[in-house]
Structures are given as structure tokens and as C-alpha cells.
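Shipment paperwork, digital attachment
Item: protein structure file
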Amino acid sequence: MRGRRGATLLILLVIVSVMVIGLLAAVPVWKTQVQREKEAELIFRGRQVVEAVRLFLARNPGRYPESLEELYEKRCLRRPFKDPMTSSGEWQIILLPGDAGPGAGGAAQRVLLVPQGRLASVPAPRLIGVASSSTRKSLKIYGQAASYDQWLFFHGQDPKQRPEIIRLGRAGGR
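Attachment content:
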């Protein structure tokens, strides 16, 4: 009787060990899948903001939205989307720089990146899009960029040419 209990316990330990090894192998695959889903959601939300800006400009010729909240309040954006790549959900807001002309939204060669929390410090902002605040390396290459903060979603974007990026508080772009 004692030998059978020992054998049962040994078999149970082997089964549990095999299950633990299987779970350890599955965790990286699960993390990768979650990251891919977040990347797809980032692309969807970024494109929704671009479409909202386009709709806003069509309804208000010559005037750009000043915030994501304005896009939502004017019913151009279905809901105030958050950045899916960060826990805070705060975007970097893409603005036309002050020296860009009124028609520059169609072919922006330079853009100003401002953290969403600092948007109020910019006089008369002209919002044209968003970028993630996350500096993490992405699994996917999007728009020739391999980190989420370099994935730009803005109205008038030329997919073949990256604009000069001016970051609030820093000189020079990337």
C-alpha cells in the first residue's frame, strides 16, 4: 500500500512539472499576442483621430481643432480614445507648428509633438493628429518606425516621407 502512494505522488509531481513547463513556454507567446493586439488597437485609434480631424476640417474650413476633447464634443470622434500602449492613456498630440501656413495640413513637412498634459501651455494649438507616449520598441514596423512614440498618425501625412519632428521644449527634430 505504501509503495502505491509513493508512485501516485511521483506521477502527480511529474504531471504538475510538465504542466508548469508548458505554462512557462506559453507565457512569452501570450505576451507577444497581447502586444500585437495593442499595436492593432493603436493603429485603429490613431486612424480614428486622423479621420476625426479630416471631418472637423470639412465642417469648419480654415479652423483646426485645439484638443481631442473638442473633436469629441463636436461629434467628429466617437469617443475620447486613450493611448493603448501606456497605463496613463495620454497621447502625444501632433500640432502644426506656428510657422506653418493655413493650407499646410495637407502636406505637413514639420510637426510639433506635445505631451497631452502640456497642450494647455501651447497658444492657439492646431491639432492634426496623435502619437503614442510609449517609447517601447514595437513588434511591427509602422511608417518606417520601430518604437511606438515614432508611429505618427496625422492629417495630411505623406506615408513615403517622415516629417521633421519638433518636440515641445527641445530643439531639432527626428
